[in-house]
């Protein structure tokens, strides 16, 4: 169990720094770090980490060979020479505990129409104990927890007793290749903690996710003769309806899953972006739809892709034009396996004890219908992936916010976890704690 005296010292350090942490988080949220534009945010973090005396590795995804690795997702519509990743290393000369990766992502999804926000998406505002802004919840508040947990240890007079790697990555929202790049670069540890906004619960498992683009052809004619041609947009609708029916069948099978039982329809299908046609008075000759569909843990990506292709082919076969001109499917972005953190692990027990020490109750678990980066560590490298973080609401929506009191308490949980998992070395050179 955590040492009460140490927790009191850590709590005092976090409280003393919390105004600074809040201002730091505001600066981080103010960076419009949407895909392809994350570099200024990452460069600011690299400078901040270096100023703390940490060894910093700054690189771009274009510098890392990883397309041969399990978990790699194909890339479209972005420039990896601009995709900056940052790893800060706090190395212990003589380990007294276990090593740890602390990882957070700084990429955020587009904010959408500015008029739908109560305050500007990248001008974070604080009101009633909440910080609003795109990325405040998902997941820059969690990144602040990592940084200021380590700061609290330092201010309490300690350094981690084993190697700690603090990683800020991109591509979490679309491929996960940022996290994979750190593994390709050789970073390893005995556990990883990713403070996604879980509301102080541990993520027991998450679904897999696949992105794909469907391109449907049509036979264009003037709309006054529409009966003689075809409409690619309406044909695409037929395909999307078939994929909705496939999703319902998958969710019916998922009712018996031990991790996701009780979760309503864990597999989600979403046609997220649509483009098509060239002229309002011509039937569309083409339509493209970018889609996202989930898959249950344990389902092979190849099996899930085959089901999607079968559903599309069946729908196309019922259309007089698509039967001879089948839709094209391109797999791009997420090709992500599901992951289950097996219960009973030592790292989870240490985190659970830290949670209990702060909140006074047992750490609850959740099953996520979204995806996170823990899969890379747990599935492919045998590193237990803990996903646990603060509270908030509105991720991927309007008026996203993070609960600042939750950020404060989560910072204490993480500081306590690092202390107990990694061990501590006093900065004054006395005997290790």
Could you please describe the fold and organization of this structure?
- The protein has 433 residues and is an alpha+beta fold.
- It has two domains: 292 residues, Zn peptidases (Aminopeptidase); 129 residues, Alpha-Beta Plaits, CATH 3.30.70.360.
- The strands form five sheets. Strands 1-2-7-3-8-16 form a six-stranded mixed sheet, sandwiched between helices. A four-stranded antiparallel sheet has the order 4-5-18-17.
- Strand 4 and strand 5 form a beta hairpin.
- Helix 1 crosses helix 3, helix 1 packs across helix 9 and helix 7 crosses helix 9.
- The model has no long low-confidence stretch (mean pLDDT 96).
Overall geometric form: elongated
Q: Tally the helices.
A: 9
Class by helix and strand content?
alpha+beta
What is the CA-atom radius of gyration, in angstroms?
24 Å
Please mark out the parts with pLDDT under 50 across 5 or more consecutive residues, or reply none.
none
Q: Share of helix among residues?
A: 25-40%
Total tally of structural domains: 2
Binned strand content:
15-25%
Notable characteristics:
four-stranded antiparallel beta sheet, 433 residues, 9 helices, 22% strand, six-stranded mixed beta sheet, Aminopeptidase
């Amino acid at each position: 169990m955590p040492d009460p005296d140490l927790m009191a010292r850590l709590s005092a350090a976090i409280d003393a720094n919390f105004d600074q942490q809040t201002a730091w988080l505001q600066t981080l949220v103010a960076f419009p770090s949407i895909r392809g534009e994350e570099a200024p945010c990452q460069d600011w973090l690299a400078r901040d980490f270096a100023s703390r005396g940490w060894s910093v590795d700054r690189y771009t995804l274009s510098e890392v060979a990883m397309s041969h690795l399990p978990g790699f997702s194909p890339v479209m519509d972005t420039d990896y020479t601009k995709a900056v990743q940052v790893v800060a290393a706090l190395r212990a000369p003589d380990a007294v505990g276990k090593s740890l990766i602390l990882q957070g992502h700084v990429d955020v999804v587009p904010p959408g129409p500015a008029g739908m926000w109560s305050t500007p998406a990248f001008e974070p505002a604080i009101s009633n104990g909440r910080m609003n802004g795109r990325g405040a919840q998902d997941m820059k508040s969690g990144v602040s927890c990592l940084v200021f947990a380590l700061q609290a240890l330092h201010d309490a007079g300690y350094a981690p007793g084993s190697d700690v790697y603090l990683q800020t990555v991109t591509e979490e929202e679309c491929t996960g290749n940022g996290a994979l790049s750190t593994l390709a670069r050789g970073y390893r540890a005995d556990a990883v903690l990713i403070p996604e906004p879980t509301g102080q619960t541990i993520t027991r498992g998450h679904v897999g996710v696949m992105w794909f683009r469907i391109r449907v052809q049509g036979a264009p004619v003037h709309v006054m003769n529409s009966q003689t041609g075809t409409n690619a947009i309406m044909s695409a609708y037929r395909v999307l309806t078939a994929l909705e029916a496939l999703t319902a069948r998958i969710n019916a099978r998922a009712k018996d899953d031990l991790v996701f039982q009780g979760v309503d329809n864990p597999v989600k299908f979403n046609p997220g972006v649509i483009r098509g046609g060239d002229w309002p008075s011509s039937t569309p000759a083409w339509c493209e739809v970018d889609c996202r569909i989930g898959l249950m843990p344990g389902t092979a990506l190849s099996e899930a892709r085959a089901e999607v292709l079968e559903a599309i082919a069946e729908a196309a076969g019922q259309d007089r034009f698509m039967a001879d001109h089948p839709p094209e499917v391109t797999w791009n972005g997420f090709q992500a396996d599901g992951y289950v953190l097996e219960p009973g692990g030592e790292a989870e027990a240490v985190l659970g004890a830290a949670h209990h020490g702060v909140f006074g109750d047992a750490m609850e678990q959740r099953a996520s219908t979204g995806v996170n980066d823990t899969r890379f560590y747990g599935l492919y490298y045998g590193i237990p992936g803990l996903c646990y973080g603060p509270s908030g609401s509105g991720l991927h929506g309007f008026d996203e916010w993070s609960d600042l009191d939750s950020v404060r308490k989560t910072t204490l949980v993480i500081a306590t976890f690092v202390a107990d998992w990694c061990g501590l070395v006093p900065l004054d050179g006395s005997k290790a704690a």
